[in-house]
């Protein structure tokens, strides 16, 4: 089941473009945020985030879901 928390985490990641800063914004650890985003991606069956050294960026699908 997709949770509202996961969607809030995705929104925070969209704003921060960085897992650590997004985790700080929502008050959880970076590994916990990363796990929740991976779980959300698995449940939806799509990649929502492009991960790269020093940051992250939402894919087009990630942006679409975050805007809902």
Write the layout of secondary structure elements.
Blueprint: H1 4-16, H2 19-26, H3 30-44, E1 49-52, E2 55-58, H4 60-66
Antiparallel strand pairs: 1-2
Terminal CA distance: 17 Å
Specify the helix fraction band.
55-70%
- Poorly predicted tracts of residues: none
The CATH C-level class name: Mainly Alpha
- Tell me the name of the CATH homologous superfamily: Winged helix-like DNA-binding domain superfamily/Winged helix DNA-binding domain
Given helix and strand content, the structural type is mainly alpha
Instruction: Please report which band the strand proportion falls in: under 5%, 5-15%, 15-25%, 25-35%, 35-45% or over 45%.
Output: 5-15%
Could you say what the CATH architecture is?
Answer: Orthogonal Bundle
Q: Taking all residues together, what is the mean pLDDT?
A: 96
What is the helix/strand order? Answer: HHHEEH
Tell me the number of structural domains.
1
Number of E strands? 2
Q: What is the overall number of helices?
A: 4
The radius of gyration is 10 Å
The coarse silhouette is globular
Strand order of the largest sheet: 1-2
Q: Which fold name fills CATH's third level, the topology?
A: Arc Repressor Mutant, subunit A
Describe this structure in words.
With 68 residues, this protein is mainly alpha-helical. The protein has a single domain (4-66), classed as Arc Repressor Mutant, subunit A (Orthogonal Bundle). It has helices spanning 4-16, 19-26, 30-44, 60-66; strands at residues 49-52, 55-58. A two-stranded antiparallel sheet has the order 1-2. It is globular, with a radius of gyration of 10 Å. The relative contact order is 0.20. The model has no long low-confidence stretch (mean pLDDT 96).
């Amino acid at each position: 089941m997709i949770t509202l928390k996961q969607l809030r985490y995705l929104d925070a990641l969209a704003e921060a473009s960085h897992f650590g800063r997004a985790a700080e914004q929502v008050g959880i650890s970076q590994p916990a945020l990363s796990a929740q985003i991976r779980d959300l991606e698995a449940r939806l069956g799509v990649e929502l985030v492009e991960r790269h050294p020093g940051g992250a960026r939402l894919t087009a699908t990630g942006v679409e879901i975050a805007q809902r």
